[in-house]
Amino acid sequence: MSLIRQRDILAVVQIALATTTVVWAGGTTLWAALLAALFVAHAFVRPLPAITTVSVQRRWTVGVGLAVCATAYRAFAWAQILDAGVDLLLLLAVQRFYCRQQTREHLQLMLIGALLMTVGAVINADLNYPIILVAYLGVAAMALLLNQLIAAGERHGATVHMAIDRHARRHGGVLWRSALGVAGVAAAGGVAVFLFFPRFGIGTFVRGMQPTQMTSGFSNEVELGHFGTIRNDERVIMRVVPDRIEPEPLPHLPLYFRGSSFDRYRDGRWDHTPSAFTTGLVRLLDSWAVTDEAGVPLLATDRSRRVVSGLLPRPIAGFAHSTSSWGSTITLEDLGTELMFAPSQPLAVTPLAEGFGVVHRLRPGQEGQILAPNRPAGPYRYRTLSRVQPPSPAELRAVGHPVTDNLVRYLEVPAELSPAFRQLATQLTAKASTQADKVDAVLAHLADFTYTVDLLPFERPVTDPIEGFLFETRAGHCEYFATAAALLLREAGVPTRLVNGYLGADWNPVGGYYGVRQAQAHSWIEVRFGHLGWITVDPTPASGRPGPGALGTIGPIEQWVDALRNAYLKRVIDFGFDDQMDMLSQLGFDPSRRRGPPLRAVVPWFAAILAAGLGWWTWRRLRRQPPVSAEVRIYRRLLARLARAGFPRQDHESPTAFALRLRAHKVEFADSLLVFARGYEAVRFGSGPGSPDRSTLRRLARQVRPTAR
Amino acid sequence: MIEPAAQTIRSARKRSAWWRRRLRAADRSLQITKAGWLFIAFTLALGFAAINSGSNLLHFLFGTNMTLIIVSGVLSERMLQRASCRVVEVDRLHAGRESAMRVEVDNTSAHAYLLAVAVERDEDFDHDGQGRQQATFAVAVPPGERVTLPTRVWMPTRGRHRLPPLVVATSYPFGLFIKRRRLPVADPVTVYPRVFAVDHEPPADTTVGHLDHAHGRAGRVGEFHALRDYADGDDARHIHWRVSARRRNPVVAEREHPRQHEHWLELQPGRTGEPRFEAHVSWLASMVVANRRHPDVSTGLRSGKQTLVTPGSGPGHEQRLLDILAVTGEQAG
Fold first, then answer.
1. Residues B165, B122 contacting (CB under 8 angstroms)
2. Inter-chain residue contact B59 with A193, CB threshold 8 Å
3. Residue B265 to residues B2, B198, B291, B307, B322: CA-CA distances in angstroms?
4. Percent of chain B scoring above 90 in pLDDT
5. pLDDT digits (tens, 9 = 90+) for B59-108
6. Which residues have a Cβ under 8 Å from the Cβ of B158 and sit 6 or more positions away?
């Protein structure tokens, strides 16, 4: 295969790899990438013309100009900066593939590929990026190497070009080894900068400007029946590293990870009562502590709200395990929601201020939700402290029938529900002496129901889907169980609210963490037990609850892949200044002993000096005239002399045409001018050896002696 | 005794020369190509974006690009250090005509390949009035080995001249920079006069009893005439060994030989560089070359009454004539 063909193929591969990283991260649509691929394929199939004609160049210029305008419009009017920019780059790549005769065009293709990889670095925080990057570096290095060989051929002429082509094909293996070696060294340099170059990020570019896909069930409004459909997704969306890992970790951790919560049910959907907040968040040390309705943190503090001996839960009377807590670090994938998930009853959340995906501020949501507004796209990490041990049944019964005066909205039941529903609720709880007994009675009733995600349409018309579930099908998924229990208990005077989140986490021995899969999404309810607070109650039968993940033959591989991805997120994407300091400490340097101003203070000066240097260079560059060769200077001087003598050259005339015109007019020096013109053209456009040199040309110019007319 | 002032000036000159040598970086030059400028600009922009955003992956890409720039410089220097080049004449070098030459490129490294080096004219040198040499390129030279690359040289004037100054250049690995090293100036070579085709046919009569002294392959020209005993002064190459062995006495073979036709070339006096004189020398050289086709013609060269070269024939004789014609003429000034 010829050198040029090899280079063409490598150019396509490097653009394809770079585009893949962008498409994978949602930087552009798959359709745009496929359309670009189609055009590139056509550019390859058609015979490449020797040169790009002026008319074709003009057409491309107009097309690219229009594309730039469209890009600007999309960027400013529709705020699609990234998508529009990527689409423009793809168009430019297509244009370059159609006109790729020279090495210059290929260099531009390499630049486009590099820009796409840069965009990918900004928006793609997934494990596929480093894998593609490795391939890209090798391919791009070889493409550049071949391109420079072809450039040498172009520079030295056809003979040398043919020799280069012949020898390069013979030494293909050597060239590949060389290119891969250089790429390896460059990658090592990149790792060194990655590890040791201090981070000054001020966050103008945020990670992932692209919109992310919202996961069903975690919006502000949830329609009954939709949440259960994500139960087939085995993707790991959360990784939980407990503060204390047991020597023999449980293979399955049956924890409820609380996400969204709703207090109002009507027309088959759950939502929030406007402006009804139950909890808040206050800043304690580096953490955000959850407060109760009165604004008091659930953590133990003194009167000045200072933390007492670390983050410890506030004791609750009649709740023996109220002071025990469970801490963990969670890496949450991008679910397209601002919700932060925390086990059972969250007490405090600490965004980890390291790396790129840092959450700077938290906000309390309705019904005890914790939100991360303006969260970065892609995964981010935080620590949580939760109360995970519920009160014992005896402690719950001890509460009796607590007062529910301020909990009216948690007792509301849609008026459309039939008398049969109300009768059922009354019937189930008739014999209950305490609120806990009522809960047990309702759960016992629902225990006979069938768990299924295949929902069949109701045969009889129903006023609410929950009535069809209770009286007709007696089958449904967790949302139906949770909603039915919540409404029946409300009808019986027990305050309830619905919670969506995840149940359970599976131990990944490779990564040393618990992984929560999308399939472990679950719905349950929380019941208010007076001063004990909101207690988690799961009405779904045990057979319907998400259990340990089934590890098939590819299970261990999945664990490896997921562990690798987690390590990538932790060690690469979220590698930050603190990690650098830790690493330097481990290497024997103590950054705390550093003297003098911090490097951060030097940055503006450095930037100013750099900007001044660039400005000076640009000014020099703009002022500089293009170099004029010696023969052109000789020719210009002669033309000036002839013009002064009254023999100006017309703009369209070549030197020879000019001389022939003068000879036609029988001008006496026309013959000597013709000799000079032919010599000049031989020097300027000739093939080198054999043509007169510049001194001869100078002599010929002197022999043209015009007499003024 | 050296005057103190003169000594000071001399030492100052020495220092100046030392600095000049250092600043020229041992006859090396570095040119940043357009691709190089583009790459540097892209790297700076990438660095700005990385510092601005704190993105780890952008830091990695920035580091990769910076390393590529450094590695490009280091590798190109290594290639120049490994390359040892020598220009070897293949053809006789005539003025105004391209002649074949050879460039021998040695890889002095015992372990690593020499990649992508070009031997080309020195662009920093003013080539007006000087010769030109076609660039040549070696893609890969194995460790410790030599490749021979063809090239062509064109010299404008006859005489003893140095070949055009050459550099060994490389843009390895990625064409971001072109680094060049001047090759040491070689000894002057003889550039023979310009030659062209001339129409010259000598008379074609023959004679007998002559030994072919002038011809390189002794005794192989002409028909066999007779055998005679060896006499002192006979060329040993003319001994007929088989007959001598049979007779136990050295015998030489005589052959019929074309009669040597003497062709005297008259060299007019003139000054080197003068067009008429140069045209005259060129014509004489062309005649010498044309007579090569006629082994029966003995070509002599004289200037007025002075005989410069006595008549003779054969390649050695032709070489002697051309050597004289290459450097003949009064020097200007």
1. yes
2. yes
3. 57, 14, 11, 10, 12
4. 5
5. 899 999 999 999 998 898 889 888 888 888 777 888 888 888 888 888 88
6. B94, B95, B191, B192, B193, B194, B278, B281, B325, B326, B327
For residue A620, report the phi and psi dihedrals to the nearest 5 degrees: -60, -40
| Alpha-carbon gap, residue A300 to A295, rounded angstroms | 13
Q: How far apart are CA B238 and CA B224, in angstroms?
A: 12
Question: Which chain A residue has its CA at the smallest distance from B33's CA?
Answer: A148
Q: How far is A199 from chain B (nearest CA, A)?
A: 5
The span from the CA of B108 to the CA of B93, in Å, is: 29
State which amino acid sits at residue A102. Q
Mutate to test the interface with B, among A194, A206, A631 (most CBs of B within 10 A): A194
Q: How far is CA A226 from CA A216, A223, A238, A477, in A?
A: 7, 6, 21, 10
DSSP codes, B123-181? TTS--TTS-EE--EEEEEE-TT-EEEEEEEEEBSS-EEEPPPPEEEEE-TTTSSEEEEE
pLDDT digits (tens, 9 = 90+) for B212-258: 444 444 445 566 777 888 877 677 777 888 888 888 888 888 776 55
Q: CB–CB of B115 and A178 under 8 A?
A: yes
Instruction: List CB contacts (< 8 A) between A121 and chain B.
Output: 55, 57-58, 60-61
Helices (H), A429-570: 435-446, 465-468, 478-491, 555-568
Chain B nearest-CA distance from A375, in A, is 15
Long-range contacts of A331-334 (CB under 8 A, 24+ apart): A331/A238, A331/A239, A331/A379, A331/A380, A331/A381, A331/A566, A331/A569, A331/A570, A332/A237, A332/A238, A332/A379, A332/A380, A332/A381, A332/A382, A333/A235, A333/A236, A333/A237, A333/A238, A333/A379, A334/A208, A334/A212, A334/A377, A334/A378, A334/A379
Backbone dihedral region of B209: left (phi > 0), alpha (psi from -120 to 50 degrees) or beta? left
Q: Which among A171, A185, A204 is the nearest to B67, CB-wise?
A: A185
A197 has a chain B CB within 8 A of its CB:
yes
For residue A457, what are the CA distances in angstroms to A216, A522, A523? Answer: 21, 22, 21
Question: Which stretches of A506-598 are DSSP H helices?
Answer: 555-568, 577-586
What are the pLDDT tens digits along chain B (333 aa)? Answer: 445 556 666 666 666 555 555 545 567 788 888 888 889 999 999 888 887 777 788 889 999 999 999 999 889 888 988 888 888 877 788 888 888 888 888 888 878 889 989 988 876 665 556 778 888 888 889 888 888 888 888 888 888 888 888 888 998 888 888 888 888 877 788 889 988 887 766 554 433 333 444 444 444 556 677 788 887 767 777 788 888 888 888 888 877 655 567 788 888 888 888 888 888 898 889 888 888 777 778 888 888 888 888 888 778 888 888 888 888 876 654
**Exposed e or buried b per residue across A17-35, where buried means at least 16 C-beta atoms within 10 angstroms of its C-beta:** bbbbbbbbbbbbeeebbee
Of A147, A185, A690, the CB nearest to B175: A147
Report CB contact under 8 Å: B113, A688: no
Q: How far apart are the first and last CA of chain B?
A: 36
Predicted TM-score (pTM) of this structure: 0.59
Provide the residue type at A591 as one letter.
Answer: P
The residue to which tokens 């005439």 are assigned: B225
Residues on chain B touching A576 (C-beta within 8 angstroms): 54
The secondary structure element, H or E, covering residue A107 is helix A103-123
**What ipTM did this prediction achieve?**
0.71
Minimum-distance CB partner of A156 among B129, B137, B140: B137
Residue B333 in 3-state DSSP? coil
- Dihedral sign of CA atoms A26, A31, A37, A43 in order: negative
Whether B35 sits inside 8 A of A107 (CB atoms) is yes
